[in-house]
Amino acid sequence: MTHHVAIVAYDRLCTFEFGCAIELFALERPELGVRWYSHAVCAVEPGPLRAMGGLTLQVPHGLDALLAADTIVIPGWRDADEAPPPALVEALRAAQRRGARICSICSGAFVLAHAGLLDGRRATTHWRYLERLRMRFPAIAIDPAALYVDDSGIVTSAGSAAGLDMLLRTRSPACWTGYAKTSGSRIRWHRWRRRHAWGHVPSSAASRTAPACRRWPGW
Fold first, then answer.
1. Do residues 139 and 115 lie in contact, with contact meaning Cβ atoms separated by under 8 Å?
2. 157-204: per-residue pLDDT in tens?
3. Torsion, CA 85, CA 90, CA 93, CA 97, rounded to 10
4. Which residue in 9, 10, 12 sits closest to 21, CA to CA?
5. Which domains does the chain have, with CATH numbers?
6. Which of 167, 199, 198, 117 is nearest to 17 (CA)?
7. How many CA within 13 A on the CB side of residue 91?
8. C-alpha span between 165 and 29 (Å, rounded)
9. More confident residue, 219 or 6
10. Residue 67, SS3 per DSSP
11. What are phi and psi of 42, to 5 degrees?
């Protein structure tokens, strides 16, 4: 049976995170010789949806498409201080109750937190949001050093690039070995990241590098 993946889209969409999910689940890989995933992009609200970089998307499915999903991907969230729509929260809760795997990239952890899906679980998010997540949702066991955390099928990743690591590792065993070699090389993902990725950048380091970063526009 084909594993079905639903990728959530919303207004002010995080383009990179969304692209990661599309690249890894929507692009077929016939060279692997395995049954591929089916997928649906599901809109949280009526379109067209605006995305970072001036893009607009017309999405064919609504949240009803989450009902058939084996895996759901939340590719970031537009504002860590904005609660997700109640319809999305209820759809995610229903998906978790029926055993779907739910993955969030970066700030998408806040969507899962609002749905109560991270209560009593280990989770992570981008280092910029760690303290905010901890203060607002104290029932979450936050792991500040993890690139990604899989706690009983609720999967969270740190930054945007860590979402690639997470999604690569959540692939089915039948796909993983060939995918890591074939697709991983196609997107220039290297196992070096798994051994040596920096993980979270402490705020003190960010402060030290800020003066140099401010000079970049002058290149």
1. no
2. 998 888 888 888 776 544 545 555 555 555 444 454 544 444 445 544
3. -160
4. 9
5. 4-218 (3.40.50.880)
6. 167
7. 24
8. 18
9. 6
10. helix
11. -120, 125
Query: So what's the pLDDT on residue 178?
Result: 52
Whole-angstrom Cα distance, residue 205 to residue 104?
25
CA nearest to 114, candidates 82, 142, 144? 82
Q: The tokens of 75 are what?
A: 């590719």
Backbone angles phi, psi at 50, to 5 degrees: -85, 145
Query: Among all chains, which residue has been given the structure tokens 């692997």?
Result: 32
Q: What is the pLDDT of residues 7-51, one digit of tens each?
A: 999 999 999 999 999 988 887 777 767 777 889 999 999 989 999
Residue 53: phi, psi to the nearest 5? 95, 5
Query: Can you tell me the distance from the alpha carbon of 64 to that of 131, in angstroms, rounded to the nearest whole number?
Result: 33
Q: What is the pLDDT of residues 67-92, one digit of tens each?
A: 999 999 999 999 999 999 999 999 99
Residues 6 or more apart whose CB falls under 8 angstroms from that of 145 comprise 199, 200
